[in-house]
Amino acid sequence: MPGLLKRLLIGRAMRSEELHETLLPKRLALPIFASDPLSSVAYATQEILLVLTLGGLSYLHFTPWIAAAVVTLMTVVVLSYRQVVYAYPSGGGSYEVVSTNLGPSAGLVVAASLLVDYVMTVTVSVASGVDNIISALPALAEYRVLMAVGFVAILTAMNLRGVRESGRAFAAPTYLFIGGVLIMVITGLIRYVVGAAPVAESAAYGIVPRPGDAHLMGLALVMLVLRSFSSGCTALTGVEAISNGVPAFRKPKSTNAATTLAAMGLIAIVMFVGVTALALISKVHLTDDPCRLTGLGQSCTSYTQRTVIAQVAAAVFGGEHSVGFYFVQAATALVLILAANTAFNGFPMLASILSRDRYLPHQLHNRGDRLAFSNGILALALFSAALLWGYKANVTSLIHLYILGVFTSFTLSQLGMVRHWNGELRTERDPALRRRHHSARAINTVGGFVTGLVLVIVLATKFTQGAWLAVLAATVLWVMMRGIHRHYDTTSAELAVEDPAAELTSPPRVLAVVLVSTLHKPTMRALAYARAAHPNHLEALTVSVDHDETAALRERWDEYGVDVPLKVVDSPYREVTRPVLEYVRAIRRESPRDIVAVFIPEYVVGHWWENLLHNQSALWLKSRLLFTPGVMVTSVPWQLTSSARAARPVGRAPGWVRRGEPRGPGSNNSSGPRNDGPTRSSRR
Amino acid sequence: MPGLLKRLLIGRAMRSEELHETLLPKRLALPIFASDPLSSVAYATQEILLVLTLGGLSYLHFTPWIAAAVVTLMTVVVLSYRQVVYAYPSGGGSYEVVSTNLGPSAGLVVAASLLVDYVMTVTVSVASGVDNIISALPALAEYRVLMAVGFVAILTAMNLRGVRESGRAFAAPTYLFIGGVLIMVITGLIRYVVGAAPVAESAAYGIVPRPGDAHLMGLALVMLVLRSFSSGCTALTGVEAISNGVPAFRKPKSTNAATTLAAMGLIAIVMFVGVTALALISKVHLTDDPCRLTGLGQSCTSYTQRTVIAQVAAAVFGGEHSVGFYFVQAATALVLILAANTAFNGFPMLASILSRDRYLPHQLHNRGDRLAFSNGILALALFSAALLWGYKANVTSLIHLYILGVFTSFTLSQLGMVRHWNGELRTERDPALRRRHHSARAINTVGGFVTGLVLVIVLATKFTQGAWLAVLAATVLWVMMRGIHRHYDTTSAELAVEDPAAELTSPPRVLAVVLVSTLHKPTMRALAYARAAHPNHLEALTVSVDHDETAALRERWDEYGVDVPLKVVDSPYREVTRPVLEYVRAIRRESPRDIVAVFIPEYVVGHWWENLLHNQSALWLKSRLLFTPGVMVTSVPWQLTSSARAARPVGRAPGWVRRGEPRGPGSNNSSGPRNDGPTRSSRR
Fold it and tell me: Interface pTM (ipTM) of the complex?
């Protein structure tokens, strides 16, 4: 039944050979890799305004300056990442750049930040998508959290089924969004120019400043503007996605990727500037608390503010029942969910790379039935659903946790690139190339400096607002990953073969002990099997909890003529495990070089409830015996008829040699390794 | 840590020899076995009144008649059980009587009813005890459920510690209660006779009849009276306790038990009649819903009615601040909790007997560290706590589920006794004894008829009120116990040794397969151990999920000069378990008479979180392999250094023979069975 359910939800299993990469033309690569940075246009302007209106309407005139700063930053970052694309066409992304140039610890910082940020990409994009759906259909406002978690569940199922990021279907929403927003911007600007400027539904409302945020002067004002700028920087999230995707581009890969990156930057800037301009023109008045809106009266608690993009679209296209409004809202919601989907590609992939490098559990490295990294997908889904639940899918609260990781990774990878160019310059002699390296280094230096500055600003303005949680999460991840790495290192050092010949030498003697509780068929079989293993010494052991039962056992032992000596150990405290452990350890103490083979007769039942009816001491005993050195624990199962149904039928064994044929090292029936590439260190 | 916590709560483990029985004189046996029936005086009168007042105050004149019926019933049941005590001095109780005389299915009906009723004894007694505490300290009213569950938890802990029912401390509350109630009854009656009759606090209130329950005529009136009688029958619960406890009496056991039973009946009747009389004299007006009390006004929702015994005590001793009132309330609460404790003795004991007879899981048959039947105690505690929680510790709601089981068991055991006497009469020739048997049979016939009638009345009047749940629970239990019995029977028939010589014959050949994932020390050790077992054929098997890794393994295999052939099976779907199972089954198909010994190298880690970092496929694989016939599964553990701490140190092995001494069937180091009593069928 669970198997069937899984098949229904996930689909049939896929063979490893079905894994292949499709190379993408630029027109597909742009929407696929850039849906995250482009979609942030949907909320970046809004977050800038929300901070400024804390002080009422009087600081809104800072908006163009802040937008200009964001645009400058975007330009710097895009230029910097074009250098990364050329220098690291393998698509390792920031983690690779930083690990290679600044060392694994710095690389881990980037990895931890990115993992946290992937979670935030899902939560913020989904929450914002839900916001835009609610802007179009306000009746859904009460199902906000449910809808958000539902979208995460749908994305999870889709990705577990192995939906590939190269699917063409994924390109459409991005182009619809770009098209819709550009038409809106152009229409709006034309209306402005011809004197019929659009007017937002909230244009008439005033905003009462938050106590303490009115009439700010000096440092306090600077802080407010910087906070607003920090919020606007969300427009930059996901810019590095193209640099991770270089291998998926058609040749010349780096050039195509760099071109796409530039196009993405240009489109994002145009859209962002356009939406921001229209928000100012149409006088969108948005606040974190509807009750600070003047002119709304008592109904403020039940009033749902529409998103900036919704208000602008309604104003431009003539109201919230126009086709244009619905089109922009639908495209926005779609592209935001799609942006969340990019994290469902990125997170499991990064987790798998980290797992390959032994920083995360091996389970994250394995591909599931549908060749997706199932465990990584599930981990991402769990974390983001929990956050959406905990923060009630509120974009503004969630956004405080965002972009910290993005800028950590920006800054460190720019620094890494500077060191990379330094290295290149040390060996490069061609003057043309040297000149190019010099200019690249200059770009990355500026990039590193600017993004580092923004990182400091973001930290300073957002830390107490919630960013501390992101910092904490990344720190915990970093410490955990180092611990895991250390554990794997210690383990493999401990397990490494040192002296093959000595380790393959068999121990001098095998002393077999068959555990007996009563004399039934499973016990008889265990005795027979134990003897077939030709031990140097064989005895049976029983733990006496009840003297009557032990006497009965002895009687039957003689009656059946069992020619194996039966030892009895008393258990005054009615325990079974401890006396057996003590007995086995005593044998080991007497002859430390021999091995003790413990045979445990077990009967196998078919239903879970049947297990409740039988003593589970065998399972516990086995697990405890494994802790005793020099012991071999053998289960001799007896299958009850009820177990036959539970044993799932399996098909024909594919690669089995008939027993008549000669068997030897040469007759291996393997289909053989098909490629003999570089040997990877083998792991369990 | 969990071990330490257990020691603190439960105490040190006790040796099996510490189990012994103390024989009880009558003066101790009475309070210990009779606390349950005597304590029901605390709620029996109240439940009679609560039903009658559904129709206002006009039906209260039926009370004396109902009380008389209860008293008659009590007399009949006590007389009947005196016969049981003489006929079955072994203390098997109703379950034994009915199983022996009416067959195991009927015995199981009694057992199921009694198990349900033990749970109800705990819930009703605890709920009523809490009620009486609240009557004395009304401020505690809001903690009703918490207090009730708390008392269950305390009783559980005490019983897990192995508090013996023979403890003298347990006798005191019963005598305090008897004394307190008798003094109260005598004082009250004297006050009535001298013309200063006590007046209850609720005497002034009228009661508005429940719509539909006023002016009842004919059948409806009969039903109301019968319902009231059914509720009053709670006075009879626990009467059979003495018949279960016969072996604990001093000699002559049966005579002493019968005398104690008679004394108990007499005391219970006197107390019940006295309390009922005083309740009528002092005009206690009680209702299931305080808002039907007239003269209380708006405050009815917050008004907590005191119990009948509390109102009577307050009226007799001069108010709710008198010493007499507090004394009676304290004694009542104590004896009620003590009555619950008798179920904590009875339930686990009955469960253990049922488990011995293979009707319940074996786990209920084992004594815990403190020689108490820990699993039975925990089961009882869980069920009763759940009921108290679900029914908000409301006595009147809970009482509907009660006494059904009691009367089922009464009726069936009386019928069993009739058949018992019939059997005796068939063989007995002594005229004096025949005469005694005849009169005993007459008593049991009357008893069976009367209790059977009451059972029908209880079923008819209470079924829809909640008794259906008790019937359902008992039915489910009955079906479950039969199913368990059938399962154990089938299993032991399947496992019974048929041909010892043939079953002990070793299989012709052992084909060993060592599972290999990578070549590290655990694998080397598994290979060495497998060779030490001298199999007829030895090979290593690896599942190829990743061609590169398999190639690396092969390379290393040659490099280390491992002289065991390495088979490779491909796993296109990246599974491990299925290819191994298929491989092993294919071997078995080729040579069905040989056994396949599968060796699995495992490494053992010390911390639970380390397990998360390693693939758990070995565990799953082992459990699946056990379903395959003719397979022996051997774990070859490799203890990582971190596991050393987790292996708990154990003391010196107590009964270990030095290896230098001769070993053989004669040298068993057992302390030997100390008694060679009748052989019980041995169970796993």
Answer: 0.76
